[in-house]
Specification:
By secondary structure, the protein is α/β, with parallel strands linked by helices. It has seven helices and seven strands; from the N terminus they run βαβαβαβαβαβααβ.
């Protein structure tokens, strides 16, 4: 489908991968609902960049998706502002290093709430608008570690594995009106404080022997929204082959 004039809500759109996804959809003419939790300045800059990039309408929306009431409020606010919704990208995420001996119920619940619970309930809250769209799309940004968890990030990896199951649940529940798919990024944006030695090790662990980029994830998102019209319940890896290496 053409993305021109479509309304897209991207969670966590103020920074990092979410920012790249929002700008890539906007470049195709989508009208953007830019969600943020604490990055207000960054979110406003993304909205301004959308308008400069394509002239498309854009607005920022704040919500703490760890709050169980937030999904309903966010969906309602976006639908009121834009008059509907065509695309939901669940990109907001908590990524916390939690060594095995340090995992406690609070850290477990915090990451499950944002990374798995919120995407489910936000999609459910958006469902009436997505169904009315006639070409509704949900894209869940998961992680390759949902299949192959790595050390010291147990709650995060478990939450992304849960999101992969949520992806299938939503695909079944929202069919046939709404397509639901997941993207599994790999090493596309290392932490800013990561040293070059560690970056080289991560690069060598991929089949392509290099790091990816947020733009690669954004291009995959555009593909799923725009071109994958006979695909639902699927998982698209954007990991340089890391999952099978």
């Amino acid at each position: 489908m053409s993305l021109q004039g479509r309304v897209a809500l991207v969670t966590g759109a103020g920074r990092r991968v979410g920012r790249s996804i929002a700008l890539a959809l906007a470049a195709k003419g989508a009208r953007m609902a830019v969600h943020y939790r604490s990055s207000a300045g960054e979110a406003r800059r993304v909205a301004a960049a959308v308008k400069t990039l394509s002239g498309a309408d854009a607005e920022v929306f704040r919500a703490d998706l760890g709050d169980e009431r937030a999904p309903d409020k966010l969906a309602d606010a976006v639908a009121r502002r834009f008059g509907g919704l065509d695309i939901l990208v669940n990109c907001a995420s908590l990524y916390e290093r939690t060594p095995f001996d340090d995992v406690d119920p609070a850290s477990w619940e915090r990451q499950m709430a944002v990374n798995a619970r919120a995407p489910f309930f936000l999609a459910r809250a958006c469902a009436p608008h997505l169904r009315r769209s006639g070409a509704g799309v949900v894209i869940n940004v998961a992680d390759w570690s949902g299949h192959r968890p790595y050390a010291d990030y147990g709650p995060y990896c478990a939450s992304k594995a849960a999101l992969l199951c949520v992806n299938k649940i939503l695909a079944k529940a929202l069919a046939p009106e709404v397509r639901v798919n997941a993207i599994l990024p790999g090493p596309v944006l290392p932490p800013q404080d990561m040293g070059e030695t560690d970056k080289r090790k991560i690069s060598e662990a991929t089949l392509l022997k290099r790091l990816g980029t947020p733009e690669a994830v954004a291009r995959a998102c555009v593909f799923l929204a725009e071109s994958a019209d006979y695909t639902t319940g699927a998982e698209l890896s954007v990991d340089g082959g890391r999952l099978i290496s």
